[in-house]
Write a structure and sequence with these properties.
CATH architecture of the largest domain: Alpha-Beta Horseshoe
Helix content: 25-40%
Bound molecules: iron/sulfur cluster
Shape: globular
Radius of gyration: 23 Å
Oligomer: single chain
Domain Radical SAM core: 131-369
Structural class: alpha/beta
GO molecular function: 4 iron, 4 sulfur cluster binding; aspartic acid methylthiotransferase activity; metal ion binding; protein methylthiotransferase activity
Function: Catalyzes the methylthiolation of an aspartic acid residue of ribosomal protein uS12.
Strand content: 15-25%
Largest sheet: 5 strands, parallel
GO cellular component, one term: ribosome
Family: Belongs to the methylthiotransferase family. RimO subfamily.
């Protein structure tokens, strides 16, 4: 009997990608085959994203495409939390399940196309099936979020924080490392809040008990001998404790902190976690302990009520904080977000636009001067793409997909996943250029 074939569409952020990996892992484990095209597959699963209105549109379009090319469609992911929106446009989808509802996705798949029964054949590699390249992997440590930022609907979609026990996370990390993964990207909605919901409960890992705590988990991950990168960390005081691990080389000297803004007014209106912290002072102290720490962040300009003065505070803050990499979004109203009901004056579209350009210009200068400091150094670089004697890679200071690259020449062929020492010859505004030594 031929294995049933499932076509899979994964939309949204790296967090959704991890959900997709898990579903695909399960599908394969149960004997399904993953099809490359909707056409000819027995079923399509669409993992949707509902974070911004534009993402919802993209999700609805993907569902529409799957319906017309195949007709048997199961919808899961963030948009599954608002089934009416989906049914309104696509009344004939087979089933709709919410985010992280692995069991219900599988139940819907079983009902639509029962799995082939092959009890002696287990094709699943122990590290699971990954959609990301083999040499790095996203490690999701919790679901949901206890914060209530006013522009965000993730807590409404995904609920409060639910942390995985530390031993669970570490087992997965070890499996990935054993499968050849060289870099782990730790993700969650709020990584520094890890374990709060389960009162930092300890679990047994190897011969010891490990608390479900940001520091304890980072320390254990740091013992695995691979690169460990921390994403979505907030500048709470306890983050200070992790910086020495970075200075010792256990965890990458990299922090992804979505600051979103710097002006106290705007941060207050956004209800950002840790918004009262003196972040500049904190970053300075971190760099005293770990001088090569790279800080990446994202910001929103044009949040309702943002004045010219607030915006200038943000620009000055960028100069002072010396943020290595920054992404910037123009505020977009999200249906259901509290920011829309706050009675704050909207920032006109053309002002948002202009502020976005001013932000990017200022940040480019900061990034470029941070990158310039790397010229002449010999740095370890992980290879993401290799083409004989030329390759593209990243230093410890850059995460895949969101930060910059190192373009490398070598006298020897390079392979994806290698970590090489590269002498940095020059830098432009985004990338580095160097020679393997
Ligand atoms: S921290 Fe704020 S922006 Fe991030 S998921 Fe939680 S509520 Fe949303």
């Amino acid at each position: 009997m031929n294995a049933p074939r499932v076509s899979f569409v994964s939309l949204g952020c790296p967090k959704a990608l991890v959900d997709s990996e898990r579903i695909i892992t399960r599908l394969r484990a149960e004997g399904y085959e993953i099809a490359r095209k909707h056409d000819g597959a027995d079923l399509v699963v669409v993992n949707t994203c509902g974070f911004l209105d534009s993402a919802r549109d993209e999700s609805l379009a993907a569902i529409g495409q799957a319906m017309s090319e195949n007709g048997k469609v199961i919808v899961t992911g963030c948009m599954g939390a608002t089934p009416d929106l989906i049914r309104e446009k696509h009344p004939n989808v087979l089933a709709i399940t919410g985010p992280q509802a692995y069991e219900s996705v599988m139940a819907a798949v079983h009902e639509a196309v029962p799995a082939a029964y092959e009890p002696y054949i287990d094709l699943i590699p122990p590290q699971g099936v990954k959609l990301t390249p083999r040499h790095y992997a996203y490690l999701k440590i919790s679901e949901g979020c206890n914060n209530r930022c006013t522009f965000c609907i993730i807590p409404a979609l995904r609920g409060d924080l639910v942390s995985r026990p530390a031993a669970d996370v570490l087992r997965e990390a070890e499996r990935l490392a054993n499968a050849g993964v060289k870099e782990l990207l730790v993700i969650s909605q709020d990584t520094s809040a890890y374990g709060v919901d389960i009162k930092y409960q300890a679990s047994v890992w190897k011969d010891r008990e490990v608390r479900a705590k940001f520091l304890d988990l980072s320390r254990e991950l740091g013992e695995m001998g691979i690169w460990v990168r921390l994403h979505y960390v907030y500048p709470y005081p306890h983050v200070d404790e992790v910086i020495p691990l970075m200075a010792e080389g256990k965890v990458l000297p990299y922090l992804d902190i979505p600051f979103q803004h710097a002006a106290p007014n705007v941060l207050k209106n956004m209800r950002r976690p840790a918004h009262q912290e003196k972040t500049l002072e904190r970053i300075r102290r971190w760099r005293d302990i770990c001088p090569d720490l790279a800080v990446r962040s994202t910001f929103i300009v044009g949040f309702p009520g943002e004045t010219e003065e607030d915006f200038e505070i943000l620009l000055d803050w960028l100069d002072e904080a010396k943020i290595d990499r920054a992404g910037c979004f123009k505020y977009e109203p999200v249906g259901g977000a509290r920011s829309e009901a706050m009675d704050l004056p909207a920032v006109p579209q053309e002002v948002k636009e202009a502020r976005w350009h001013r932000f990017m210009q200022r940040q480019q200068k900061v990034s470029a001067s941070q990158l310039q400091k790397k010229v002449g150094k010999r740095l370890p670089v992980i290879i993401d793409e290799a083409n004989g004697l030329a390759a593209r890679g990243r230093t410890k200071y850059d995460a895949p997909e969101i930060d910059g690259n190192v373009h490398i020449q070598s006298r020897r062929p390079m392979r994806v996943g290698d970590i090489l020492t590269v002498k940095i010859d020059r830098a432009d505004a985004y990338d580095l250029y160097g020679t393997a030594v």
